[in-house]
Amino acid sequence: MLYFYKQITHPINNMHAYMHHFFKQLFAEASLVYNHGSLILPYFQTIIDHHDVLDQRLQVLFEAYMGLAVAEKVQVQQAYGNNNSIAQVCNNAIRPVKFDELPVGIRDPLKGLYGSRGVLYQMLTAKDNYDAVKKRCGSLKGHFESFRVHNPLSVCPFCGMENLLTDYDDTKNEYDHYLSKGDYPFYSINFNNLTPVCDYCNKAGNKGQKDIPFQPGTNLQVQDELYDPYSVAYPTHAIELTINASTTDLKKTLIAGRYP
Ligand SMILES: [Zn+2]
Predict the structure, then answer these.
(1) pLDDT band at residue 259 using 50, 70 and 90 as cut-offs
(2) In whole angstroms, what is the distance from residue 208 CA to residue 205 CA?
(3) Half-sphere exposure of 55 (CA within 13 A, CB side)
(4) At what angle do helices 52-66 and 104-114 cross, to 10 degrees?
(5) In contact, 110 and 185? CB cutoff 8 Å
(6) Between the N and C ends of the chain, which has fewer C-beta atoms within 10 Å?
(7) 60 C-alpha vs ligand 1 centroid, how far in Å?
(8) What's the mean pLDDT when you consider all of the chain?
(9) The model's pTM
């Protein structure tokens, strides 16, 4: 990354907070009966009342979790803690946990909420429908406008070449899951893991769905150190460029280099 984004306060973070409460209660839950009273915050209840699919998937997850052995429950709790500690994951202090490393019985229920087609991200970012969600969490376009006011730099921090759209534009840039929501649970609606990127970086084959801590071609057991996109540490990295020109005809030299 060439620079770091500044995190902002926006109601879109409410969905993650609602789910955080759900998991906190789930991990402490003694009752085997799915019960809104302890699991669901009042504002979240209004969303669930309007969207049965979310209620059903939360219940499926609850029952799957309650069916796990004690050691498996601990595994899920650790995965939740690890994957929501994004700065430490980027520093290699913590290893992120993938769907396929979790107990078999809870993988699909978690994917139904957080995976590539998980309902949480879909509800939060859809342009239309889900009015109850928008009332509590605002829209992704609204988040983008506020984000760009607090992050006014023009170029994409990942490539340093393409311009980003601004809060004055009618459209917005796409948001990228820094750690892929297809590989890792609990990341799809955590906005510390979501960043606007330029169209070039968002294309398949560039950043796309790459599993950036464990890329093919590297030792897959060794986690790569990453930049935390919202780092406030600002490491003193700098780019130094030296050109040893043997000709002043750079255009001809570059073309010759590309097509020898
Ligand atoms: Zn870019």
Answers:
(1) very low
(2) 6
(3) 13
(4) 160
(5) yes
(6) C
(7) 38
(8) 89
(9) 0.87
